[in-house]
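ugh ok so i messed up the first submission bc i forgot one of the chains. this is the corrected input, ALL of the components this time, i swear. 623 residues overall. if the numbers dont match what u have on ur side tell me asap before i send this to the collaborators (the ones from the other lab, u know who)
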Amino acid sequence: MTERQTVEPLLQVRDLKTYFYSPSSVVRAVDGVTFDLREGETLGLVGESGCGKSVTALTLMRLIPNPPGRIVGGEVIFKGRDLLKLSDSEMRKVRGRDIGMIFQEPMSSLNPVLTIGRQLTEALELHMNMSKRQAMDRAGELLDMVGIPDARTRLKDYPHQMSGGQRQRVMIAIALSCNPKLLIADEATTALDVTIQAQILELMQDLTSRLGTALLIITHNLGVVARYADRVNVMYAGKIREMGSSDDIYGSPKHPYTVGLLNSVPRLDEPAKTRLAPIRGEIPNMADLPAGCAFRDRCDWAIERCGAEDPTLTEAGREHWSACWESAKVSRRPAAQKAKV
Amino acid sequence: MRGTGRALRKNPNLLAGTVILTIMALIAIITVTPGARLVARYDPQALAVVHRLEQPSASHWFGTDRLGRDIYARTLHGAKVSLVVAVSVALSVTVIGMTIGITVGYNRTADNLVMRVMDGMMSFPTLVLALALVATLGSSLFNVVLVICIVDTPGMTRVVRGVVLSLRERSYVESARAIGASMPRVLFRHIAPNTLAPVIIQASVFFAGAILTEAALGFLGVGTPEYIPSWGNIISAGREYVTINFWISFFPGLFLALTVLAANLVGDGLRDVLDPRLRGAT
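and heres the new structure output, hopefully the right one now
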């Protein structure tokens, strides 16, 4: 552990804030997110829809549409440089070459009127100074690498001639074409069949570990993260609420929201419960968050202090942080305890 | 090009349109070569007052006009003007419209500015605007083309802008940005090809429209000058004699209608062929 910590992390995100402005309100989609990503590791970023996970990813890539969005503060230190301070043209060199990204919809992430080959060679031509010929050769290798049979002939195909899983494989090939140090997968498997999901995730993990690429998996699917991530960040209402190794997060969650998430999904490694326990209440309006902890109204452990002060991440164990005043008391089996009180 | 033959066979409308347009194009080309005399049989300008206003006959297939000029020869020569106007207009409007539309579709400030100007231009009735412009600039073939381009550009720009506005939200645009493509690159390499299907349809409409507008300008007497026969001015010249000899206007009108129809058929067929999603596995 200690040895690992001495190495400078690949990516250091510090107090990142991305807000969206409308005439009547400000949505603090990402509000003070801080985390590290080490070289070669797989980090999960989990949370429900609208919690700011995708905005975090887009902020890292500086692809937030402006207006209405704006990155209002923080630092994204990648390989020693603050990405937020780079010029647009420098940032373009980072995208695709240093950081690859895969998006959610495999059906529309590929341009319908360009051949697979042309889309695969684009990043190579942009960043690797390859000629058309070389790029095409490399594109064939890449398709082969992501497990598409008959790769060379498929280069001439159009996206509609491929299945969803194949398209996502192509997206992975594009994202990895320039050997990036970091691959961001934003809900990359959400739109796929469960069996295909597993294949794609296996493929991503296999390739990133082979190429030494760090992987940031953004998902709302806890199962995905449990299986593939080394460490997990749990996000809620624009902030990271709990951070720790996969084992800690799943074994001994220290934030009520994480507990709620875990209790709301069925698990094979636990005795079958008759009913799943959903998190009560609804996601607060992001444009009008209450003071204090945003999860307060849905929380079984809420105390008075939660309404006044928003807790920050504090150490809850080794390499394990939770943003909760009561984190010492939080454990699984919460609802039952509470009910008896 | 391997797929072209098959596309034509699978799409009878496209085939018919292509055949008619090809014939018209051949006619137009022949009339500028020495072969013109063989095909057209007469000089379109040759006067023969003794033979004025004749009905179609073996010697004058389409009859003659009030100065005894052969309508058949004039109609064939008229194809040249109509097609030159139509092709120039369709090409120029496509290039100009796509450039403006794509730029404007991505830049809000330019969008507001340019589109308000376009709206202003579109608020004039096409023909009236064209008439006013030709009357000011003087009637020549070039001015006719220029004027129709001016009148049609807002329409094309609007189509392109609309498509760009919807396309830029697609995730492949985001993907392209995520691999480090610059904005102009995204616009011209990723978005532009996706606008082609609607643009081609629009271009075919303007192609047909240009023939009609040119004819209308000719009919109103401000189109191409009378010493250059065009379908518009032949029809115009025949209008006083419609009751006694409708052939004068009928034949150029028929050619005009056929060409316009063919252009529309081709536009429609091209859309199907150019859209890779509608095209079968290649």
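quick check: Chain A touches chain B at residues 61, 63, 89, 92-97, 100-101, 103-105, 108-114, 122-123, 126-127, 156, 158, 160-161, 171, 174-175, 177 (CB under 8 Å). that seems consistent at least. The mean pLDDT of chain A is 84.
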